[in-house]
Amino acid sequence: MQYDMLSLEARKRYKLLSSLVVPRPIAWVSTLSPNGVVNLAPYSFFNVMGHDPAVVALGILEHPEKSLKDTVRNITQTGRFTVNLVTEELALLMNQTATDLPCTESEADMAAVALCPAVANGVPGVAHSPVRLECQLMQVISTRTQQKIVLGEILSLYIQDELMIDPSAATIDLDAYTPIARMGGAGLYCRTSDRFNLARPDSQTQPLD
């Protein structure tokens, strides 16, 4: 089956891409409105896009009724956001915040999500998230619709002590870290505990990434 993505209905494009490009890590994004209201929402069109500088990318789809989602509006107006990574233990709580509230109300308050102060960007993070990326806006890229691609530089990285094997070598205990990821289909997620190793080819005989 071959699809012409330029003429395909937008909803079908979403269903195909969200089912095929998997698993996708979840960015549980906290932002502050100019009035100080904490917005908290999960996004799975997300990843890091480099380390020098350390860059986060968020793909935020258009809201079906409003011109912009609260997350994009807050990031654009304040230039700041925090990405909280989601583990198995936080899955249900994260899912509760995937709701549409007025911009004057906080999903964190609604779901009783414990927050913690920021170190570098002033945007509170999720206290029980084992990994938090405090970001400063670099660029918002607008596509032909209200869909936005947000690029942010990571100013500060928090890692729960229990996840560190050797802080001096920046070594993470992957058995202790239990992030979940988004799959296609309504409400479908996966665990990341089933892993395997492949030795990388010799860089002198094989091209690098």
From TrEMBL:
Keyword Ion transport attached: no
Keyword Nucleus on entry: no
Domain Flavin reductase like residues, every copy: 19-172
Protein name: NADH-FMN oxidoreductase RutF, flavin reductase (DIM6/NTAB) family
GO MF term set: FMN binding; oxidoreductase activity, acting on the CH-NH group of donors, NAD or NADP as acceptor
Keywords: Flavoprotein, FMN
InterPro entries the UniProt entry points to: Flavin_Rdtase-like_dom, Split_barrel_FMN-bd
Similarity field: Belongs to the flavoredoxin family.
